[in-house]
Amino acid sequence: MKRLLRPRTFAAALALVVPAVLLGAPAAHADPVSQTSGFYVNPQSSPAAWVAANPNDGRAGAIRSQIAQRPMASWFGNWSGDISRAVGSYVGAADAVDKLPVLVAYNIPGRDACGGHSGGGAGSVAAYDSWIAAFASSIGNRPAVVVLEPDSLGDFSCMNQTQINDRVGMLSRAVGQFRSKAPNTWAYLDAGNPGWVDATTMAQRLNQAGAANARGFALNVSNYFPTGDNTNYGNRVASALRNYGYSKPFVIDTSRNGNGSNGAWCNPAGRRIGTPTQLGGGAEMLLWLKTPGESDGNCGVGAGSSAGQFLPEVAYKLIYGY
Fold this sequence. Notes:
Keywords: Carbohydrate metabolism, Cellulose degradation, Disulfide bond, Glycosidase, Hydrolase, Polysaccharide degradation, Signal. By secondary structure, the protein is α/β, with parallel strands linked by helices. 35% of the residues lie in helices and 10% in strands.
């Protein structure tokens, strides 16, 4: 690793572009940005694998240059097999080239309970606690960004109080695992999107879920709301957190928000890729968390597909906005 010899231009850029209100939030961990030289591009992502398998397809060139060669998060869940091996291998590959990997943990029991298209998750509270502890341990001292459990704090409407209590407990313990076992990781709790839960309620849920010990919170994961709308909402959530004695920075998923939202969340037509992964831009980071072209489920322009399945035609249309 060459972190100590490399100029800190990546971190310097962060200091220049993050709004002052966000820079005021204390870091929960050491800074993984200053330890790396940019974001990791996964050569084995689903769009990269499709391009490699279909080099003569007329859509391959655009998907390669506009999606596959750009930094995106990799998602880990109950499909990942041995989570220690899966996470360790991914973070190790990024560390070997001095890049910052972005990971999404998506395995909480009752996952997507209200939406229904991405159901599943660990079989019990104890199983999740064990799984997320192994996830954090497998990162260890290597730098990383982790987004914890999309939908988990917005998806309360079909849950009873016991289930909600279990969920915020799991999230709080998960944050603690990253704080203790992955000291160079920035962990962000998912906080929904501007069209879901009001900022005051979301701040309350974040606080219950251990946000005080996280780096911050994540917005718009797998959704389409414009960056400006998310920035306004994120600032309101950050302000509301001050009622609990602290504030936090946030990141925004811009992978598919180039044309904004039409009110639908499940494979809507006419959407477009947004600003590529970068520092700043109205938040601490703009990140491609959802992989453009991966289905939200059997719905919309992804009818007949399953959640997470890569659809080249959907990816191609996202590039051009139709």
